[in-house]
Amino acid sequence: MTSPDKPIHLLLVDDLEENLLALEALLKRDGVVCLKARSGDEALELLLVHDVALALVDVQMPGMDGFQLAEFMRGNANARHVPIIFVTAGSADQQRRFRGYEAGAVDFIQKPVETDILKSKANVFIELYRQRQEILSHRDELKAYAAALSAADRRKNDFIAMLGHELRNPVMAFRAGLQLLERQKDPEKSALIHARMEVQAHHLSRLIEDLLDVARIDQGKISLQRERVTVQSIIDSAVDTSRPKIDAGRHDLTVEVPGAPIWLDGDFTRLSQVVSNLLTNAAKYTPSEGRIQVSANRVEDRVRIDVADNGVGVPQEMQVRVFDLFTQSKGPDDRSREGLGIGLALVRQLVEMHEGAVELESAGAGAGSRFTVWFPVVG
């Protein structure tokens, strides 16, 4: 829609100042600005700066007359769409009218000007201008909407491909494990196969739970089981949950929390899931034997929880989208890591459900990342 605060410009062109002031007095009102020019050259300069809804042009002017100005306007990309009404004190015979229409005029008005006729015709073109601006605005909105739909469709296709890949791996491991168990007689080797299958089962379970959590949140079906919990217990639980992933990457994990308890009012399971997802994300995007740090500090009436790593970092152009659903960052090898790209989206949704906020800080590719979560404290 056209902004009501954006004025509509009318261009008045006449070599006599008194005529310009008279036209301005007739046409000026709220939301309309009259641009006055005393020559064709001045008019062209104004047209380079302003978008004009209507030009009222005196035919007889020294130097560049009204017809010549109209011809120049029709040759200018910024001005060729501006409707022109010629104002003439002389007779508008058929030849003059033909020249005027040929130059791009939409009408002629005879001097002395009849007030009601001038206002009525100006109102028509002002309204047409408003409608044209609204159409252009809607066109831009539709283009943006179409681009968003196209991006969402690409993300959907990427997600389906990732989902197929992520589900295929544990399923193939199960099939291979079952075939090996059928032929395996050694109890120790059977136990090892069972352990590997258990790891794949846990991975598959996490994928399914993440998918269900996204659906539940979108449908408003997650209700938080709030209670008084300490930040320290949340971080301990998250570290235990993420330990297999951290150990698999042989990362050095440092945990720094205050000795005095920091109390929150929240769902222990969901808060632990927030920190666990951040730790898992750090382990995923940090090369082997990297460094990961989780810390907590009280800052006035909020607690700040940081999860930092020295991993692949997040490119600047990716940082505004990293919390979007089905979005994955890529490492220096330009390959996405395992997972469906929903862990950080879940983090943001769960944090906001706890009246908190999550932030990302990264100097770019190869510079590591720091995710910071803020929650209000109680007590």
TrEMBL record:
PROSITE patterns: HIS_KIN (PS50109), RESPONSE_REGULATORY (PS50110)
Keyword Chloroplast: no
Chain positions found as 4-aspartylphosphate: 58
Gene3D superfamilies: 1.10.287.130, 3.40.50.2300, Histidine kinase-like ATPase, C-terminal domain
A Pfam family this chain is assigned to: HATPase_c
Domain Response regulatory positions: 9-126
CDD domains according to UniProt: HATPase, HisKA
Catalytic function, reaction form: ATP + protein L-histidine = ADP + protein N-phospho-L-histidine
SUPFAM superfamilies according to UniProt: ATPase domain of HSP90 chaperone/DNA topoisomerase II/histidine kinase, CheY-like
Keyword tags: Kinase, Phosphoprotein, Transferase
UniProt GO molecular function: kinase activity
EC number, UniProt record: 2.7.13.3
InterPro entries: CheY-like_superfamily (IPR011006), HATPase_C_sf (IPR036890), HATPase_dom (IPR003594), His_kinase_dom (IPR005467), HisK_dim/P_dom (IPR003661), Sig_transdc_His_kin-like_C (IPR004358), Sig_transdc_resp-reg_receiver (IPR001789)
Domain annotation Histidine kinase: ranges: 162-379
EC category name: transferase
Protein name: histidine kinase
